[in-house]
Amino acid sequence: MTPLERPVSRGGLWGWRLYDWANSPFPAVIITFVFSAYYTQAVADDQVTGSSWWSAAVAISAVCIALLSPPLGAIADQTGRRKPWLAAATLVTITATAMLWFVAPEEQWLLVGAILIVIANVGFEIGMVFYNAMLPDLAPPNRIGRISGEAWALGYAGGLVCLVVALLVFVQTDTPPFGLDKATAEHVRVVALVVALWIAVFSLPTFLLTPDRKRTEMPLRQAAQSGIRQLIQTLKNVRQFPEITRYLIARLFYVDGMNTLFLFGGIYAAGTFKMSVEEIIQFGIALNVAAGIGAFVFGRIDDLIGPKKVILIAIAGMLAVSTPLLMVEGKLLFWVFALPLGLFFGPAQTASRSLMARLTPPHMTTEMFGLFALSGKATAFLGPTLVGTVTVLADSQRIGMATIAVLLIIGGLIMFTVKAPPPIRDEALADKPPSS
Fold it and tell me: What sign does the dihedral 26-154-354-225 (CA atoms) show?
């Protein structure tokens, strides 16, 4: 008997996929490229001060996400429905992102901007907990990898399209539309409104078309108490979930390695290869295109060979490409080896979601995806600390970046010990409706 309030239609599945398209401009435009550069270079008096404030905001948000995700996920499992929680998190993200418009290029706005980034980033990541937890209910078991990969590829595409619109229409034009004043950086600050509107508009299909779990009759207060008790019990009896435990520990390391590689990629390109800001943005766009292609293609391979093998292939691919990348000289060779790196980023991310969906007990899906979010944030400090410390001690960016390989190798070795469920063939589910 399905836990959903109505059967899943093609429209419902595409509604779920489109949420990735809707919310991906937030990390692309706000966190990674445009607004982060504006905050560190224009709001602060100097880039060192701006970078320290920005880093602190991102770090604080990571701590909040790690603390809030598991209990909120556990409570949501008790209430049954996920969409109200997803809607609340999305609304927080939209509101805080839109308010970044008011962060003028004056140092007095540093604190306000940092607070808004913390709130918006927490809303974004908490929303992903409820969004990811919907996948096992919506996708047939033999199509989880494909649907997850398509959604992740849509996310990369949405982030890139919004980024290009923001850059070409507002940031890099000589005459910004709507009379935006360049003197007060309105042509840059407006990207916050663009992203907020983008999320609001494109997330609507998810809430209108995608079915949710049936609501339980449990009052919210009782659900909160029951959910927290369930979470505490889960953590106490973690040995009952050995495969999930090993998987989440593995993910602590390889995701931290991936995130650090992504975080320091632009810094490495600028410092070692003297790439300009424009070249770094072009590199970022190209890397995201490659990651989207990888997510789409390997989403189908996921259903054939299983997500564990896809994750191991992605880790091996990142190691194989990043090693010569740290040895080459010249921009051309950097591009030649760096772009294939993106082909493995996407598969590692989408297969991680797919594997969690396959391992999780149905009645604990949101709670487990809360722990999934925790595993992505708990050691977020480790990679950057290793790279920064070794870079200073060795006086070499190349040697500092090489420490990322250690994190990937540890994560990969632990992944080998995870017993993942075998792929489910189409013929085993011949009586089920098509997923797309």
Answer: positive
Residue 20 near residue 151 (C-beta atoms within 8 A): yes
Three-state SS at 53: helix
User: Across-strand partners of 4?
Assistant: 213
What would the pLDDT profile of 108-156 be if each residue is shown by its tens digit?
Answer: 999 999 999 999 999 999 999 999 989 888 988 888 989 999 999 999 9
What span, in angstroms and rounded, lies between the C-alpha atoms of 235 and 193? 40
- Is the CB of residue 66 less than 8 Å from the CB of residue 379? no
Give yes or no on whether 1-236 and 237-424 have one common fold.
yes
- 215: DSSP letter: P
Please state the pTM of the whole predicted model: 0.85
Query: Which residues does residue 213 pair with via DSSP β-bridges, in sequence order?
Result: 4
CATH class entry, domain 237-424: mainly alpha
SS3 175: coil
What counts of helices (H) and strands (E) characterise the chain?
18, 0
Task: Determine whether domain 1-236 maps to CATH 1.20.1250.20.
Answer: yes
The b-or-e profile of 188-207 (16+ CB within 10 A means b, else e) is: bbbbbebbbebbbebbebbe
How far is the C-alpha of 334 from the C-alpha of 332, rounded, in Å?
5
Give the N- to C-terminal CA distance of the chain in Å, as an integer. Answer: 21
Q: How far apart are CA 57 and CA 268, in angstroms?
A: 22
